[in-house]
Amino acid sequence: MTFISPRRHRPRLLNALLAAGAMMTATAAMPGAGHAATNSSFTPAQRQEIVDIMRNALKTDPTILSDAIAALRNSANAAQQNAARNALDSHRADLLTPAATDAILGNATGHTTVVEFYDPRCPYCRKVLPDLDRLVKEDGDLRIVEKVIPVLGQSSLIASQALVAAFVQGGQAAYFRMQTAIMNDSVTPTADRMRTLATQSGLNAGMLASDMNSARVTSILQANMELARAIGLDGTPTFVFNARQIIPGAVSYDDLKKAIAQSR
Hints:
By secondary structure, this protein is an alpha+beta fold. 64% of the residues lie in helices and 10% in strands. It contains eleven helices and five strands.
């Protein structure tokens, strides 16, 4: 089998593509052809010649297509990154100033702020918890602001309501006790199951069950969801570092630590 060197043949193929472009330009420049070119009304023979040139170029050097796809992908990634930066700039205050109802790991007045959007039913969110605890123990100037968002269905909603209701009932301490219970529980969340976990966590189960559907809990979860949508969140967990960088999905301890250092 004979392999064609893309590097050696690229100039000839590019010339073919340029010739196609030149032919289209020349056609458009012909007297009286302006209106026809605007409407893409090349003659059938011209269109066929252009198609043949392109097809032959792709057959001879398939890397042309892969290069084009890579260019489109890079362009899309750049646009996505620009949109993310704009979103972070627009919501910088919301991301750097914890709400009164936000649970905070580490130093509540720390100068480095990491916001975590998480779903209590997300296995990756559960897996990363020990790493978050380790990070705040090692870094005295770090605070991790936790914003619970129910994105995985009804079970997530019930668990999220219970977490926020625990905060409403007893603040940070109650929240983290309930979080430990929920995030380590393998039983599908139901209202009755949340009452059981609340009792095991030393909370008033009846009050928690009542607060779960309250206007206050609903408004807290809605605010979290609105902020998540505003920054373009597309999965959990998602981490935002000092309102400068977004990292979605499962992240290792080393990657988290590196992103924290880069955000300072």
